[in-house]
Amino acid sequence: MKNKYSISTLKLLTILFLFASCEKDEIDTWVSIEADKTTVAINETVTFKMSGNAETYVVYTGDTGHDFTKSYLVITGGKKVDQEDYVLTQVKLDIWIPILTAEIAAYNVLNPNTPLNPNTIIAGLGSLVNKSYYKDTAAIKIRELMPTLKTFNDCQNLVVTYFTNLSVLLTPPGGFSTGVAINRYNLTYSYKFTSPGTYVVTLLGTRLSDKIYSGSGYIYNSTASASEYNFGRNTATVTIVVQ
């Protein structure tokens, strides 16, 4: 009986290993690119030939507006781009509390019939700690806690003063560089460089895995998302000197 279970376990492990190996091979991506000439004159045609096992191919010619190092993929590295992200930390709140407490006390002296409760306001601010907000959203949250003490502009200034700006503002001047999509059934591309210089031409290849089903798959939910796929990417380069 012990041998029977051992053999069954071995078979199961073998199947799992083979499945994992197939998945790895499925998205193991390679590409290559070569040029018919690597030193050219301005406006002279260069023809690139490519190969690989990718499903999509994009060529970045390396000149202005087409530099792979300034592409969305390279610059963002998967981060949210141009997303405001203001966070109130406990350290900053601790700095703010004595200042705010003094302001509330002064307000209450002048407004004895409508006093503010500092404990309620401070507790409300505490609920904002370590949460991400747009700048104006954070200002609205603050003003909701003390509408008679602070104007909206005051609250915006408080966000700038006491919240940490973790925004990712990565879009370069002029926007991200773009590439040219290449037909995978005709992996050639011709281009003319209009200015002298040395250009690194980059080929980006991407390959998707099969859909990774979860739950009931498509039985009850026919939608799909990027998280249901793995992908492999690879690049190849060739340098062109334009004289």
Task: Name its key features.
243 residues, alpha+beta, five-stranded mixed β-sheet, three-stranded antiparallel β-sheet, elongated
Layout of helices and strands:
Layout: H1 2-27, E1 31-35, E2 39-40, E3 45-52, E4 56-60, H2 72-76, E5 86-88, H3 90-110, H4 118-126, E6 132-133, H5 135-145, H6 152-162, E7 163-165, E8 180-182, E9 188-192, E10 197-208, E11 231-242
Parallel strand pairs: 2-11
Antiparallel strand pairs: 1-3, 3-9, 4-8, 4-10, 5-6, 5-7, 10-11
Helix pairs in contact: 3-4, 5-6
Low-confidence residue ranges: 4-25
- The number of strands is 11
Q: What series of H and E elements makes up the topology?
A: HEEEEHEHHEHHEEEEE
Overall helicity? 25-40%
Shape: elongated
Structural class: alpha+beta
Total of helices: 6
What portion of residues belong to β-strands? 15-25%
Average pLDDT rating: 84
Strand order of the largest sheet: 2-11-10-4-8
Distance between the termini: 78 Å
Q: What composes the largest sheet?
A: 5 strands, mixed
Radius of gyration: 29 Å
Overview of this protein structure:
16% of the residues are buried. By secondary structure, this protein is an alpha+beta fold. Helix 3 runs antiparallel to helix 4 and helix 5 packs across helix 6. 34% of the residues lie in helices and 25% in strands. The strands form three sheets. It has a five-stranded mixed sheet, with no helix packed on it. The longest helix is centred in the N-terminal third of the chain and has 26 residues. It has six helices and eleven strands.
